[in-house]
Amino acid sequence: MEKPPGSRWADIVGREGHDHGARYAARFAALAASGADVHGEAHFCAALLGPGSRVLDAGCGTGRVAIRLAELGHECTGVDVDSSMLAQARSRAPAMTWIQADLATVDRLGLRPDFDMVVTAGNVIPLLAATTEPAVVAALAALLRPGGLLVAGFGLDAAHLPLDHAPVSLPDYDSWCADAGLALLSRAATWEGDPYTGGGYAVSVHRRG
User: pLDDT, tens digit, for every residue of 115-132?
Assistant: First the structure.
Protein backbone atom coordinates (compact mmCIF):
# COMPACT_ATOMS: atom_id res chain seq x y z
CA MET A 1 0.00 0.00 0.00
CA GLU A 2 1.45 3.34 -1.03
CA LYS A 3 2.11 5.69 1.88
CA PRO A 4 0.23 9.01 1.65
CA PRO A 5 2.34 12.16 1.30
CA GLY A 6 2.97 14.11 4.50
CA SER A 7 0.27 16.60 5.45
CA ARG A 8 0.68 20.28 6.25
CA TRP A 9 -0.54 19.40 9.77
CA ALA A 10 2.34 16.94 10.17
CA ASP A 11 4.77 19.71 9.25
CA ILE A 12 3.28 21.95 11.95
CA VAL A 13 3.20 19.43 14.80
CA GLY A 14 6.65 18.18 13.90
CA ARG A 15 7.88 21.48 15.30
CA GLU A 16 5.74 21.31 18.48
CA GLY A 17 6.83 18.12 20.24
CA HIS A 18 4.96 14.97 21.14
CA ASP A 19 2.66 16.41 23.84
CA HIS A 20 0.75 18.80 21.57
CA GLY A 21 -2.48 16.83 22.03
CA ALA A 22 -2.43 17.37 25.79
CA ARG A 23 -1.62 21.06 25.37
CA TYR A 24 -4.42 21.50 22.82
CA ALA A 25 -6.92 19.78 25.12
CA ALA A 26 -5.78 21.85 28.10
CA ARG A 27 -6.29 25.07 26.16
CA PHE A 28 -9.91 24.21 25.41
CA ALA A 29 -10.47 23.01 28.97
CA ALA A 30 -9.31 26.39 30.22
CA LEU A 31 -11.64 28.16 27.80
CA ALA A 32 -14.56 26.04 28.98
CA ALA A 33 -13.69 26.74 32.62
CA SER A 34 -13.74 30.48 31.87
CA GLY A 35 -17.33 30.19 30.64
CA ALA A 36 -16.58 30.27 26.91
CA ASP A 37 -18.71 28.14 24.59
CA VAL A 38 -16.33 25.56 23.14
CA HIS A 39 -19.04 23.54 21.40
CA GLY A 40 -20.02 25.85 18.56
CA GLU A 41 -19.07 23.34 15.87
CA ALA A 42 -21.05 20.52 17.49
CA HIS A 43 -24.14 22.67 18.02
CA PHE A 44 -23.99 23.94 14.42
CA CYS A 45 -23.89 20.33 13.22
CA ALA A 46 -26.58 19.14 15.63
CA ALA A 47 -29.00 21.71 14.25
CA LEU A 48 -28.71 20.00 10.84
CA LEU A 49 -29.21 16.44 12.10
CA GLY A 50 -32.15 14.26 12.93
CA PRO A 51 -32.22 12.26 16.17
CA GLY A 52 -29.66 9.48 16.47
CA SER A 53 -27.74 10.35 13.30
CA ARG A 54 -24.49 8.68 12.24
CA VAL A 55 -21.64 11.19 12.15
CA LEU A 56 -18.04 10.85 11.02
CA ASP A 57 -15.71 13.43 12.55
CA ALA A 58 -12.93 13.45 9.96
CA GLY A 59 -9.80 14.95 11.44
CA CYS A 60 -11.34 14.66 14.91
CA GLY A 61 -8.27 15.74 16.88
CA THR A 62 -8.95 15.45 20.62
CA GLY A 63 -12.56 14.46 19.92
CA ARG A 64 -14.19 17.63 21.21
CA VAL A 65 -16.82 17.80 18.42
CA ALA A 66 -17.57 14.08 18.22
CA ILE A 67 -17.85 13.68 21.99
CA ARG A 68 -20.31 16.56 22.28
CA LEU A 69 -22.41 15.21 19.40
CA ALA A 70 -22.44 11.79 21.09
CA GLU A 71 -23.64 13.46 24.29
CA LEU A 72 -26.49 14.90 22.21
CA GLY A 73 -27.52 11.40 21.15
CA HIS A 74 -25.70 10.84 17.86
CA GLU A 75 -23.58 7.84 16.86
CA CYS A 76 -20.12 9.23 16.22
CA THR A 77 -16.86 7.87 14.82
CA GLY A 78 -13.64 9.85 14.88
CA VAL A 79 -10.71 9.51 12.47
CA ASP A 80 -7.40 11.31 12.83
CA VAL A 81 -3.79 10.67 11.83
CA ASP A 82 -2.35 12.29 14.96
CA SER A 83 -1.70 9.81 17.79
CA SER A 84 -1.13 12.57 20.38
CA MET A 85 -4.53 14.12 19.66
CA LEU A 86 -6.30 10.75 19.52
CA ALA A 87 -4.84 9.78 22.89
CA GLN A 88 -6.83 12.65 24.39
CA ALA A 89 -10.01 11.57 22.60
CA ARG A 90 -9.63 7.98 23.79
CA SER A 91 -8.98 9.03 27.38
CA ARG A 92 -12.08 11.22 27.44
CA ALA A 93 -14.44 8.79 25.69
CA PRO A 94 -12.97 5.27 25.66
CA ALA A 95 -16.24 3.65 24.59
CA MET A 96 -16.43 5.63 21.34
CA THR A 97 -14.85 4.51 18.07
CA TRP A 98 -11.56 6.29 17.33
CA ILE A 99 -9.50 5.32 14.27
CA GLN A 100 -5.94 6.42 13.64
CA ALA A 101 -5.57 6.92 9.90
CA ASP A 102 -4.63 9.51 7.32
CA LEU A 103 -7.75 10.91 5.63
CA ALA A 104 -6.06 10.16 2.32
CA THR A 105 -6.74 6.49 3.14
CA VAL A 106 -10.27 6.85 4.54
CA ASP A 107 -11.70 4.90 1.61
CA ARG A 108 -9.70 1.85 2.79
CA LEU A 109 -10.99 1.72 6.38
CA GLY A 110 -14.08 -0.37 5.73
CA LEU A 111 -16.49 2.24 7.11
CA ARG A 112 -20.15 1.79 6.18
CA PRO A 113 -21.03 4.39 3.51
CA ASP A 114 -24.23 5.56 5.17
CA PHE A 115 -23.21 8.46 7.37
CA ASP A 116 -25.76 11.23 7.80
CA MET A 117 -22.95 13.73 8.18
CA VAL A 118 -19.20 14.02 7.76
CA VAL A 119 -17.75 17.03 9.59
CA THR A 120 -14.26 18.45 9.09
CA ALA A 121 -13.74 21.22 11.64
CA GLY A 122 -10.50 22.83 12.75
CA ASN A 123 -8.99 23.67 9.35
CA VAL A 124 -8.79 20.02 8.32
CA ILE A 125 -9.12 20.65 4.58
CA PRO A 126 -6.28 23.20 4.17
CA LEU A 127 -4.01 21.13 6.43
CA LEU A 128 -4.21 18.02 4.25
CA ALA A 129 -1.22 17.03 2.15
CA ALA A 130 -0.91 19.11 -0.99
CA THR A 131 -2.62 17.56 -4.04
CA THR A 132 -4.61 15.04 -1.94
CA GLU A 133 -7.52 17.39 -1.22
CA PRO A 134 -9.80 16.45 -4.16
CA ALA A 135 -9.40 12.73 -3.47
CA VAL A 136 -10.07 13.20 0.25
CA VAL A 137 -13.23 15.21 -0.44
CA ALA A 138 -14.40 12.53 -2.89
CA ALA A 139 -13.72 9.75 -0.39
CA LEU A 140 -15.58 11.58 2.39
CA ALA A 141 -18.51 12.26 0.06
CA ALA A 142 -18.67 8.56 -0.83
CA LEU A 143 -19.22 7.73 2.86
CA LEU A 144 -22.43 9.78 2.97
CA ARG A 145 -25.88 8.34 2.43
CA PRO A 146 -27.96 10.06 -0.30
CA GLY A 147 -28.96 13.41 1.19
CA GLY A 148 -26.11 13.26 3.72
CA LEU A 149 -24.15 16.40 4.57
CA LEU A 150 -20.47 17.32 4.38
CA VAL A 151 -19.74 20.19 6.77
CA ALA A 152 -16.36 21.90 6.60
CA GLY A 153 -15.04 24.99 8.35
CA PHE A 154 -11.66 26.40 7.41
CA GLY A 155 -9.60 29.55 7.05
CA LEU A 156 -9.22 31.36 3.76
CA ASP A 157 -6.28 33.59 4.68
CA ALA A 158 -3.18 33.45 6.83
CA ALA A 159 -4.92 35.24 9.70
CA HIS A 160 -7.24 32.26 10.11
CA LEU A 161 -4.69 29.50 9.55
CA PRO A 162 -1.50 28.21 11.19
CA LEU A 163 0.14 28.78 7.78
CA ASP A 164 1.65 31.76 6.01
CA HIS A 165 -0.84 31.47 3.15
CA ALA A 166 -4.17 29.85 2.36
CA PRO A 167 -3.67 26.76 0.14
CA VAL A 168 -7.42 26.24 -0.47
CA SER A 169 -9.98 28.74 -1.78
CA LEU A 170 -13.76 28.42 -1.74
CA PRO A 171 -13.90 27.98 -5.54
CA ASP A 172 -11.35 25.15 -5.19
CA TYR A 173 -13.38 23.47 -2.48
CA ASP A 174 -16.73 23.91 -4.22
CA SER A 175 -15.24 22.43 -7.39
CA TRP A 176 -13.98 19.34 -5.53
CA CYS A 177 -17.37 18.93 -3.88
CA ALA A 178 -19.20 19.24 -7.20
CA ASP A 179 -16.91 16.63 -8.76
CA ALA A 180 -17.80 14.35 -5.82
CA GLY A 181 -21.54 14.73 -6.38
CA LEU A 182 -22.16 17.31 -3.66
CA ALA A 183 -24.17 20.52 -3.99
CA LEU A 184 -23.73 23.61 -1.82
CA LEU A 185 -26.61 23.88 0.65
CA SER A 186 -25.48 26.84 2.78
CA ARG A 187 -22.44 28.81 3.86
CA ALA A 188 -21.80 30.69 7.10
CA ALA A 189 -19.03 32.95 8.30
CA THR A 190 -18.82 31.34 11.73
CA TRP A 191 -19.89 28.20 13.58
CA GLU A 192 -22.50 30.41 15.25
CA GLY A 193 -24.17 30.64 11.83
CA ASP A 194 -23.48 34.26 10.90
CA PRO A 195 -24.13 34.82 7.17
CA TYR A 196 -21.10 34.57 4.93
CA THR A 197 -20.53 37.75 2.96
CA GLY A 198 -16.82 37.30 2.30
CA GLY A 199 -13.88 37.20 4.66
CA GLY A 200 -11.21 34.92 5.97
CA TYR A 201 -13.26 32.03 7.34
CA ALA A 202 -16.20 30.00 6.05
CA VAL A 203 -18.32 27.06 7.17
CA SER A 204 -19.70 25.25 4.13
CA VAL A 205 -22.52 22.71 4.08
CA HIS A 206 -22.75 20.50 1.00
CA ARG A 207 -25.36 17.80 0.41
CA ARG A 208 -24.95 14.53 -1.45
CA GLY A 209 -27.48 14.05 -4.25
Answer: 999 999 989 999 999 999
